[in-house]
Amino acid sequence: MKNFWPDDIKGAVSLTFDDGIVTQLDNAIPLLDTQDLKGTFYLNPGKGDRWKTLLPRWQEASQSGHEMGNHTCSHPCSCNYGFSSEHCLEKLTLNDIASTIDEATQVMNRAFPEQKGHRSFCYPCYQSYVGSGRNRESYVPLVAERFVCGRGGGERVNDPLLIDLAYTWSWAVQHIPGSEMIEFIELAAERGHWAIICMHGVGGEHIPVETEALAEVCEHLGANRNRIWTGTVVEVADYMAERRKELGVVAP
After folding, report:
1. For residues 228 and 12, what is the distance between their CA atoms, to the nearest angstrom?
2. pLDDT for 97-121, tens place per residue?
C-alpha cells in the first residue's frame, strides 16, 4: 500500500489542550505560534465567567488557525469523580449528552464563525457512556453523527488504517518531560501513525505539563516539520477520512 501520509511525511501529531484555561492562552499558544504550529483547544462554551472573560482571546486564537473543539457545555464525567451529585454520567441519558453537545455547538458556531461549524469533539474525562450496569450505553454514535473525529484516551498512537475516528486515543502528559513526549511522537512517525498529546494546564493550573517540556516538543516539531505533520485534530481527521476513501480502506 502507498504511504498513507502526503509527500515525505512519515507520521502525524496533534497537540491538544482541554478545558479552556488561561495558562493555555498565556503559555501554550505563544509557544505554538513561535514555531508556526497549530493546536486544538477543547472548550466548554458558556460555562461561567471564565468563558466570558477569555472568549476574546479564544476568538483571536481561532482566527489565527488554532482549532476550537467541542468539549460540551457541562463537562459531564462519572459520578465517582464527585464533581456533581446529579449531572454525572451514570445518572444521565443519551438525550442529556446530545443536549450539552449541541448547546456547545450552537455557542461555538456564533463565537467562531470562521470554523464554519466544522470541528472535532473531546470526551470529558475520556469517558464515552451514560448510565450504569445493564443500562450503560455508549454515546460514541452521537459523536460520530456530529463530528469527523472524537478524541478520547488510550495512551497509544493511532493506526490510520484501524483507529475509530469517533473515538481516537490520546496520551495525557501531565508532569511528563519533553524528551518522553518526543519519543512518543517519533514512535508514531516510525510506524506511520498519528500521535495525539493531551494537555490541561501549561506551567500551572490543574494537571499541568511544564512550559519547558512543551517548548522542547514545539522546537522538535518545528525542526522536523518536513517529516512529521503537526496538524489540528479536525485537520488530520479530515485528511484521514478522505485518504481512506482513496485507498478503499474501511476501518473495523
Report:
1. 5
2. 999 999 999 999 999 999 999 999 9
- What contacts 128, CB < 8 A, 6 or more positions away? 138, 139, 140, 143, 150, 152, 167
Q: Name the β-bridge partners of 230.
A: 13
Give the integer Cα–Cα distance in Å for 51 and 33: 22
Using a pLDDT cut of 90, give the percent of the chain over it: 93
Q: What are 121-133's pLDDT values in tens digits?
A: 999 999 999 999 9
- Residue pointed to by grid coordinates 498513507: 4
Cα–Cα distance measured from residue 94 to residue 146, given in angstroms and rounded to the nearest whole number:
14
Q: Which three cell numbers stand for residue 5?
A: 501520509
Angle 146-198-5 from CA coordinates, rounded to 5°: 70
pTM strictly above 0.85: yes
